Amino acid sequence: MTAPKKLFIRTYGCQMNVYDSERMAESLGGQGYVETQRAEEADMILLNTCHIREKAAEKVYSELGRLKPLKAANPDLKIGVAGCVAQAEGEEIMRRQPAVDLVVGPQSYHRLPEMEQSLREGKKALNTDFPQEDKFEVLKSRPKARRAPSAFLTVQEGCDKFCAFCVVPYTRGAEVSRPVSRILEEARNLTERGVREITLLGQNVNAYHGDGSDGVEQTLAGLIWRLNGIDGLERIRYTTSHPNDMHDDLIAAHAECDKLMPYLHLPVQSGSDRILKRMNRSHTAESYLRLIEKIRAARPDILMSGDFIVGFPEETETDFQATLDLISEVNYGYAYSFKYSSRPGTPAAERAQVDPAEADDRLQRIQALITKQQQEIQADMVGRDLNVLVEKPGREAGQMVGKSEYLHAVHIENSDAAVGDMVRVRIVEAKRNSLSAVSR
Ligand code: 5AD
Ligand code: SF4
């Protein structure tokens, strides 16, 4: 028997890439690869790339430059680029960096085994198609190995919204939903392997409209209700959502579905209607605020999370102030803010850009406000009793670490809980990025 070959995957970007990397590792497992954490000993290195912000492609090229010496040391080493940079750059990657053997776009991962076969035959392999077949079906996980208590599950991919700044509709393609039956099957399989919490993933997850087994399309709420019936599964989350697809049945699920967690990531991007319009967001600041009112009426304790872009082309100080006002009104438990970065091929790339120093200054101001809100919300957790899903031992003796309903990281002191347990705790202290708790 030959020794298994070693696969090293470096994952950039979003949770969907994390999920995809797991699927790629499983798929190449069928070709005799086992994963390693050390690039130096790998027989294949895959960079699973992200193209959403900053000089993504340039960063990938410099990383490839750093990997080149490994190839000189081991001529059998194969180097591959996957993900959204692979989709956007395609063949150009192999032209600019001849050390690259394989380029595979996000819709072609199920083709990896045959691509790997080409590599064995000494050929290079490139696939950035958007094929019709169900890649998830082909990538279905084989092994029955235990899994960590919290897992991602992709239910929807791609986006039809075409926000003026965003590459996702180009790199991930049009919106596609997986059928309900396949998702339930995967969720049951995960639960049998020890998973207690599933986060449903999609670039625009609340636009989910997958085939139900009865031939009727299901909404995300319908899917969540079905998942709610799986024994052993204790928590359901979903991300990322668009305000325009936040329909009443999903809001009602937040009130009524016991396994759906009180946390919602609902990006608004800006608080200025003028900028929202230029972003092609098709909602206003006011309609977003009314939506949140409705969601909070259904689930008063829900913790809101969002994304913001500062320095979008043509953004004035007045527009930026409107964003700060909106943040103050919503009160976010978590929020992520980004400086606008021009993405070639998107409509906003052609427009008058904001002075970079001004954009930096706005980023600092928005982050200061967001941090203050986050910390106040964390501090408000002190004295409360929460449920924590235990994920791993902490750094100190007797300490276990997990997540609360609201997705805060919680350190439980002197705990005898095991990984995968759901424990009732009292929060005793709010630290910078986590909460401390004692068992109840
Ligand atoms: N520049 C800056 N931020 C961006 N995002 C998406 N595209 C860009 C861009 N070109 C942000 C949005 C989105 C998050 C995932 O990344 O806020 O919600
Ligand atoms: Fe990009 Fe999200 Fe807008 Fe779709 S909805 S284009 S993924 S920012």
UniProtKB/TrEMBL annotation:
Domain TRAM residue range list: 379-440
Subcellular location: Cytoplasm
Pfam families in UniProt: Radical_SAM (PF04055), TRAM (PF01938), UPF0004 (PF00919)
Domain named MTTase N-terminal: residues: 5-121
Cofactor details (free text): Binds 2 [4Fe-4S] clusters. One cluster is coordinated with 3 cysteines and an exchangeable S-adenosyl-L-methionine.
Catalytic activity: N(6)-dimethylallyladenosine(37) in tRNA + (sulfur carrier)-SH + AH2 + 2 S-adenosyl-L-methionine = 2-methylsulfanyl-N(6)-dimethylallyladenosine(37) in tRNA + (sulfur carrier)-H + 5'-deoxyadenosine + L-methionine + A + S-adenosyl-L-homocysteine + 2 H(+); 2-thio-N(6)-dimethylallyladenosine(37) in tRNA + S-adenosyl-L-methionine = 2-methylsulfanyl-N(6)-dimethylallyladenosine(37) in tRNA + S-adenosyl-L-homocysteine + H(+); N(6)-dimethylallyladenosine(37) in tRNA + (sulfur carrier)-SH + AH2 + S-adenosyl-L-methionine = 2-thio-N(6)-dimethylallyladenosine(37) in tRNA + (sulfur carrier)-H + 5'-deoxyadenosine + L-methionine + A + H(+)
One annotated Gene Ontology cellular component of this protein: cytosol
Positions that bind [4Fe-4S] cluster 1: 14, 50, 84
Gene3D superfamilies tied to this protein: Methylthiotransferase, N-terminal domain, tm_1862 like domain
EC number(s) reported in the record: 2.8.4.3
GO terms, molecular function: 4 iron, 4 sulfur cluster binding; metal ion binding; tRNA-2-methylthio-N(6)-dimethylallyladenosine(37) synthase activity
Matching InterPro entries: Elp3/MiaA/NifB-like_rSAM, Methylthiotransferase, Methylthiotransferase_CS, Methylthiotransferase_N, Methylthiotransferase_N_sf, MiaB_methiolase, rSAM, rSAM_horseshoe
Annotated ranges, domain Radical SAM core: 145-380
Keywords: 4Fe-4S, Cytoplasm, Iron, Iron-sulfur, Metal-binding, S-adenosyl-L-methionine, Transferase, tRNA processing
Cofactor: [4Fe-4S] cluster
Binding residue positions for [4Fe-4S] cluster 2: 159, 163, 166
Family affiliation: Belongs to the methylthiotransferase family. MiaB subfamily.
Subunit structure: Monomer.
Described function: Catalyzes the methylthiolation of N6-(dimethylallyl)adenosine (i(6)A), leading to the formation of 2-methylthio-N6-(dimethylallyl)adenosine (ms(2)i(6)A) at position 37 in tRNAs that read codons beginning with uridine.
Protein name: tRNA-2-methylthio-N(6)-dimethylallyladenosine synthase
Natural source organism: Roseobacter ponti
Gene of this entry: miaB
